[in-house]
């Protein structure tokens, strides 16, 4: 994602978003509060995990 303040491209782990951690831009040092609004990331992550489990069962 890009920093909302300086537009510097930063990499954030999905786990950090799920935990809604406070993150700091490496360029401008501003704090960014990560928010998983409507639990959309959690829901999509669960859906992807379920699909991978289906694939594992298929190839067993």
Structure characterization notes:
The protein has 60 residues and is mainly alpha-helical. The chain is built from two helices and two strands. The longest helix is centred in the last third of the chain and has 20 residues, at 40-59. The radius of gyration is 16 Å and the shape is elongated. The termini are far apart. 0% of the residues are buried.
Which class of secondary structure composition applies to the elements? Answer: mainly alpha
- Overall geometry: elongated
The residue-averaged pLDDT reads: 91
Q: In angstroms, what is the radius of gyration? A: 16 Å
User: Uncertain regions: pLDDT < 50 for 5+ in a row?
Assistant: none
Helix content: 40-55%
Strand order of the largest sheet: 1-2
Number of strands: 2
Largest sheet: 2 strands, antiparallel
Count of DSSP helices? 2
Topology:
Layout: H1 14-18, E1 22-24, E2 31-33, H2 40-59
Summarize the structure.
The chain has 60 residues and is mainly alpha-helical. It has helices at residues 14-18, 40-59; strands spanning 22-24, 31-33.
Descriptive labels:
60 residues, mainly alpha, two-stranded antiparallel sheet, elongated
